[in-house]
Amino acid sequence: MKIVVVQGPNLNMLGIREQNIYGPMKLEQIHAQMKSFADENGLEIEFFQSNLEGEIVDKIQECYGDADGIIINPAAYTHTSVAIRDAISAVALPTIEVHISNVARREEFRQKNLIAAVCSSSVVGFGPFGYHLAMVGMTQILNEIKAIKEQQAAQQPAQ
Ligand code: DQA
User: Fold this and answer.
1) What architecture does CATH give domain 2-155?
2) What stretches in the chain show pLDDT beneath 70?
3) Does the Cβ of 100 fall within 6 Å of ligand 1?
4) How far is Cα 84 from Cα 70, in angstroms, rounded to an integer?
5) Sign of the four-CA dihedral 116, 122, 123, 125
6) Nearest CA to ligand 1 atom 8
């Protein structure tokens, strides 16, 4: 089972940008923790960060036929990007949206979210720990899908 982690604009600046909101952890440290969880649970994991909307759309499209699930923090594009929303809809993979900060408590312009409605679920406001929660959630979703497929296969009449 393969999970692709997609990180949007300015998340490469974690540890530097607005530490009062996003904390001191760097993106590499978050990814190292996710990789440990993936290894412990026998999951393949790939990390991708881009500041460009089109590159994020391309990466989501590449997940089709390649990945079993997506964990995405679209960052500022959460509030603006129909293209990223459509890409998530198009590939139709289990997708968990993560926001480090509690966007509900922030500026008015962050209250619009174009992404949440096409995701399986959202993890918001737990700081970097939200990525770990997303890994636990994705593991659960993938296990449930696996169990359903196994059950369906067992019900198929022998050919
Ligand atoms: C963010 C919230 C967004 O509003 C913001 O533009 C980000 C990060 C978060 O993780 O809290 O860049 O997605």
Assistant:
1) 3-Layer(aba) Sandwich (3.40)
2) 158-159
3) yes
4) 13
5) positive
6) 75
